[in-house]
Amino acid sequence: MTENKNSKPYDLEERTAKFAENCRDFIKGLSKTISNIEYSKQLIRSSGSQAANYIEANEALSKKDFIHRIRICRKETKESCLWLRLSETNNIDISEKQKQYLQNEAIEIRKIFTSILNKSVL
Q: What is the pLDDT along the chain (122 residues), one digit of tens a residue?
């Protein structure tokens, strides 16, 4: 990740947005089967939603609102894992590597949201 003068060393807003962008790019390379078209629509929604809800969480009006938004982020990230899993790459090596990378990234982001939740509910 590149670092701006005003950014934190590791910006989760940027990371979640990048995850959504990478999911969008991954979908472009999938074969246009009926199932992939439907899973792609869902992946676009869930990956974008986790990024958007994280932005909303950072602008939350209360702690309760913040926790609610982070729970949505975690849920949407977990859902992204499912759509990635169900996507058919037809064992094309580059698509398979992208899929694995995105699945790993989704798991890491979900763990971060879980950690944020655990610290916020205390």
A: 344 445 554 699 999 999 999 999 999 999 999 999 999 999 999 999 999 999 999 999 999 999 999 999 999 999 999 999 999 998 888 899 999 999 999 999 999 999 999 999 87
CA dist 36 → 60, 62, 92, 100 (Å): 35, 39, 14, 16
Residue 78's φ and ψ, nearest 5 degrees, are -65, -40
> What are the phi and psi torsion angles at 6 (to 5°)?
-95, 0
Q: What is the Cα–Cα distance from 107 to 84, expressed in whole angstroms?
A: 11
CB-based contact 69:12 (threshold 8 Å): no
What domains appear along the chain, each with residue ranges and CATH number?
12-120 (1.20.1440.60)
CB 49 within 8 A of CB 113: no
